[in-house]
Write a structure and sequence with these properties.
about 325 residues; mainly alpha; Peroxidase, domain 1; Peroxidase, domain 2; two-stranded antiparallel ribbon; about 50% helix; about 5% strand; globular; binds protoporphyrin IX containing FE; binds 2-acetamido-2-deoxy-beta-D-glucopyranose
């Protein structure tokens, strides 16, 4: 009887120990690669710097890549998986097709990391670090990225279609979309400040420049000259008309002047209760930077669903 109890007790201890180890493994930590790949962070930083030096827009593209990864089943590099004849990934989902960029940069960084410490650094962590390094490189705030994400073995085009908000969204749709990821209204308004860098296609702002009433008239007319009612779908325009390659708070200044490029941008300053937050960020860069960094940490820790199997991909474009 006593022996039997001891066996039962040992089983419980082993189970407890196992669950502790599993939890520890699931927890992200800034020092995750400290012993297994001490150069990981500097390799990512150098790769990002090189890519931005070659093409400034890349910084914006890498920031957006992280957002579009995290909003679909968590930050798990699902967006990096290529389509194959037998597999449909997220790259051709409506918000991503002909729009999301930066894949080659991630490939190059991953190749350097595989040389330095094979099979150690996840693609999802590279994307999270590259987003932070891009913002810092372009003059924005820094934050500590916790690491240890696993790469997905699957992707979901349908979830990418529905989870990433379109630029036609109204304020309540934006709030709902971010709330579904555990992000607050304040997080949403701060993260939208990402549109202080980068470019958008005519097709993303056509409705706004022809149909919206809350737009500066001369701003709308100028844009109508390059973005006709039909055609020129891919013509690019700065999301922040003033400083598209600097991470600053001028995005919010533009909103105060009804010069938000996207319908969804101007929704943040159109007579609702979030107007006050836009005004605050427009007046106080420090406040914007602090809230942005906090929100980025929260976004970059959106978890994949429980039970999803992860791995460290060798090639970010396909499962091992
Ligand atoms: C609030 C809801 C959001 C909507 C509706 C939205 C929508 C868009 C659209 C339509 C574009 C232009 C895409 C194109 O025409 O190809 C864009 C670009 C961009 N978005 Fe957002 N976005 C949102 C939030 C965010 C967030 C949270 C981030 C980052 C944390 C972000 C970062 C960017 C960046 C950096 C670009 C420029 C990318 C480049 O030049 O390659 N956006 N966004
Ligand atoms: C440099 O930027 C151009 C676009 O301006 C791109 O086509 C090319 O692949 C980039 N090369 C590297 C090495 O990043
Ligand atoms: C994605 O874009 C390509 C090139 O413009 C187009 O041929 C294809 O039909 C698009 N895919 C989807 C799913 O919309
Ligand atoms: C997602 O969007 C693409 C492009 O608009 C479309 O072709 C596809 O049917 C949509 N739905 C799913 C489930 O992929
Ligand atoms: C906002 O958009 C959603 C989804 O398109 C729609 O159902 C809702 O009626 C809109 N709300 C307002 C206040 O216009
Ligand atoms: C503007 O609104 C009208 C009426 O709702 C619609 O038919 C048209 O397609 C819209 N134009 C654009 C460019 O979105
Ligand atoms: C912005 O607010 C005005 C006035 O409250 C309203 O008429 C309009 O429908 C709202 N949205 C847009 C895009 O103009
Ligand atoms: C298309 O865009 C170019 C600028 O990239 C502009 O010069 C041209 O006028 C536009 N075409 C139309 C029909 O608006």
């Amino acid at each position: 009887m006593a022996t039997h109890d001891m066996v039962g007790f040992s089983v419980v201890v082993v189970l407890l120990a196992t669950s502790v180890i599993t939890t520890a493994r699931c927890k992200l930590s800034p020092s995750h690669y400290q012993s297994t790949c001490p150069k990981a962070l500097s390799i990512v930083r150098a790769g990002v710097a090189k890519a931005i030096k070659n093409e400034t827009r890349t910084g914006a593209s890498l920031l957006r890549l992280h957002f579009h990864d995290c909003f679909v089943n968590g930050c798990d590099a699902s967006i990096l998986l290529d389509d194959t004849p037998s597999f449909v990934g997220e790259k051709t989902a409506a918000p991503n097709n002909n729009s999301v960029r930066g894949f080659e940069v991630i490939d190059r960084i991953k190749a350097s990391l595989e040389k330095e410490c094979p099979g150690v650094v996840s693609c999802a962590d590279i994307v999270a670090l590259a987003a932070r390094d891009s913002v810092v490189h372009l003059g924005g705030p820094s934050w500590t990225v916790s690491l240890g994400r696993k790469d997905s073995i699957t992707a979901s085009r349908s979830l990418a279609n529905t989870s990433i908000p379109p630029p036609t969204s109204n304020l309540s749709a934006l709030i709902t979309s971010f709330a579904a990821q555990g992000l607050s209204v304040k997080n949403m308004v701060a993260l939208s400040g990402s549109h202080t860098i980068g470019l958008a296609r005519c097709t993303s702002f056509r409705g706004r420049i022809y149909n919206d009433s809350n737009i500066d008239t001369s701003f709308a007319h100028k844009l109508q000259k390059i973005c006709p009612k039909i055609g020129n779908d891919s013509v690019l325009q700065r999301l922040d008309i003033q400083t598209p390659t600097f991470f600053d708070n001028l995005y919010y200044h533009n909103l105060l002047q009804k010069k938000g490029l996207l319908h969804s941008d101007q929704e943040l300053f159109n007579g609702s209760s979030v107007d006050s937050l836009v005004k605050k960020y427009a007046c106080d860069t420090g406040k914007f930077f602090r809230d942005f960094a906090k929100a980025m940490i929260k976004m970059s820790e959106i978890k994949p669903p429980k039970g999803s199997n992860g791995q460290i991909r060798k090639n970010c474009r396909k499962v091992n």
